[in-house]
Amino acid sequence: MTICLDQIDLNKILTGDVRALLSAIKDAGGRAFVVGGAVRDVIVKRAIGDIDIATDLPPNRVIDALSDKDIKVVPTGLKHGTVTAVLRGKGYEITTLRRDEETDGRHANVAFTDDLREDAARRDFTFNALYIDESGEVQDFFGGVEDARAGCVRFIGDARARIREDVLRILRFFRFYAYFGQGLPDAEAVSACKELAHLIPKLSAERVAKEMIKLLAARDPIGACKAMIECGVASFVSDALVDKQRLETLIEAERETGIASEGIVRLSAWLPFDTAAAERVAEALKLSKRDREILRVLSFLPEELRKEDDKKASRRKLYEYGVEFSKHALLMNGSAFAKRYLSVVVAWESPVFPVKGKDAMKVGFVSGEELGLALQHVEKWWISRDFQDGKEACLERLKEVRKNH
Question: Is the pTM of this model over 0.85?
Fold first, then answer.
């Protein structure tokens, strides 16, 4: 099936730089196409992200073709047929058409081909196997245009075969459903994901974490999360991903307030308010230090900020954990107090502890552990008095600490 885009949409994907790359390859005797997500996104009228290019030229000839036009090219993945062209500081991946020779569920050994359909057949979903050439003609071998417009995430060919080639496609299915799906998810795809979900633990933790965080960053991932729970996929990611009620609370609060949360915050909302569970998931997914801290703090802070009659205690927590943590914690707990107090948090200008190390040295402390402990003591005292004392009062307190030591 071939279709043609209107000129407005065509200009979004075939920019001047993209045309220059396609033309450079054509001048070297090859064929070149924009492929994948960019084509899908322009068809469904969404913002276009990265633009990738497929060609029948082998990588060494692509490098020569671009170099002849004085286009910078970086050999980023020659083993897999990929180079990156750089124009005006922006990178464009250019990959030689491929077919899979051997797969093991995580990696594939590939061979180059000049057959566009062979290249399309090795891709995951029908709407990711779309190609557009410099004339604006779209090549669609598996009904991807129709599926994209209908919001149907459908595997190419046999869903089980596609998953066995790369088990991560189970999570990618639910991620694309979160972003593009309309109505119920494709029954055959769900059945295949359910049957092969036990293979998920074979994937690297980093790949699983990356895919889950992308999924949860969708505008509304609730339908995808529900489907993952119902077919048992979620439990193979973590046995803690059971109750989505807190996630629903968070997303509803985001809609009401216009405050968006990133994927890792939403992951914390999908977990129970249990620090041990949060730490277990963070370890299992090999999360970064930053993301581990987000899961840890949001495993208890939403409940601690539920103290409706103690605004002073809430301000202490706000000072201790900062606006971002506190904002998302309030969105997550969903209480009436949280919604009222949110405006305070958003407008919060954190008080600055008025005493510094040099002040402590002026009253007799020398640099080192003793000075640090003294400052911590006075800061806790200052916090306990609701940040009301100024520098002079804090200095007097510091002098008292000095006398007692």
Answer: yes
